[in-house]
């Protein structure tokens, strides 16, 4: 199946009036509709991810069950929804994905990645938080499995997103 991968900056038509969009550069590229004046800025999509550390100092990773990158390791987390802070999004995602309620987060770093979904490549910008985890977890339907790794034995070659891997490497490097 020929599945042309495209960037969301390649959108062709105005979502407001269906006229053809043209590309413009105003110190940053954008798409403009010459009929109704609609402007499309290709801003990244905000995401949150959480480095979870247990009492033994091991890091928890989830195995992705859904596209993109099925079967690859990832941090718990996801897209920030409308009206949420990064912390609130983290709390919601951890509750949904792992059945845990966590309150205290530290900041580990931020990064960007490409997230390909249904033929469109979305540019993400991810804030990576850190939290301690103890007690039982209840992985949800959208998680294939969870694994704990010693920071010396993290299989980065099997990680879904290189930007996130970079933040994890930096974080464990300075511990
Ligand atoms: Zn238009």
Automatic annotation (TrEMBL):
<dbReference type="InterPro" id="IPR000086">
    <property type="entry name" value="NUDIX_hydrolase_dom"/>
</dbReference>
<protein>
    <recommendedName>
        <fullName>Nudix hydrolase domain-containing protein</fullName>
    </recommendedName>
</protein>
<comment type="similarity">
    <text>Belongs to the Nudix hydrolase family.</text>
</comment>
<keyword id="KW-0479">Metal-binding</keyword>
<keyword id="KW-0460">Magnesium</keyword>
<dbReference type="GO" id="GO:0035529">
    <property type="term" value="F:NADH pyrophosphatase activity"/>
</dbReference>
<dbReference type="InterPro" id="IPR050241">
    <property type="entry name" value="NAD-cap_RNA_hydrolase_NudC"/>
</dbReference>
<dbReference type="GO" id="GO:0006742">
    <property type="term" value="P:NADP+ catabolic process"/>
</dbReference>
<dbReference type="Pfam" id="PF00293">
    <property type="entry name" value="NUDIX"/>
</dbReference>
<dbReference type="GO" id="GO:0046872">
    <property type="term" value="F:metal ion binding"/>
</dbReference>
<dbReference type="GO" id="GO:0005829">
    <property type="term" value="C:cytosol"/>
</dbReference>
<keyword id="KW-0378">Hydrolase</keyword>
<dbReference type="InterPro" id="IPR020476">
    <property type="entry name" value="Nudix_hydrolase"/>
</dbReference>
<dbReference type="GO" id="GO:0019677">
    <property type="term" value="P:NAD+ catabolic process"/>
</dbReference>
<dbReference type="InterPro" id="IPR020084">
    <property type="entry name" value="NUDIX_hydrolase_CS"/>
</dbReference>
<dbReference type="InterPro" id="IPR015797">
    <property type="entry name" value="NUDIX_hydrolase-like_dom_sf"/>
</dbReference>
<feature type="domain" description="Nudix hydrolase">
    <location>
        <begin position="43"/>
        <end position="171"/>
    </location>
</feature>
């Amino acid at each position: 199946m020929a599945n042309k991968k495209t960037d969301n900056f390649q959108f062709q038509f105005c979502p407001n009036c269906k006229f053809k969009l043209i590309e413009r550069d105003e110190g940053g590229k954008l798409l403009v509709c010459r009929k109704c004046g609609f402007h499309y800025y290709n801003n990244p999509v905000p995401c949150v991810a959480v480095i979870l550390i247990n009492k033994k100092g091991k890091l928890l990773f989830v195995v992705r069950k859904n596209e993109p990158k099925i079967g690859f390791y990832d941090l718990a987390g996801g897209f920030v929804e409308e009206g949420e802070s990064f912390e609130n999004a983290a709390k919601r995602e951890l509750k949904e994905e792992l059945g845990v309620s966590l309150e205290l987060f530290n900041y580990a770093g931020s990064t960007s990645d490409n997230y390909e979904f249904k033929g469109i490549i979305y540019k993400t910008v991810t804030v990576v938080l850190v939290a301690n985890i103890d007690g039982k977890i209840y992985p949800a339907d959208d998680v294939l499995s969870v694994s704990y790794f010693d920071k010396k034995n993290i299989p980065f070659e099997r990680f879904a997103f290189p930007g996130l891997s970079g933040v994890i490497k930096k974080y464990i490097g300075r511990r």
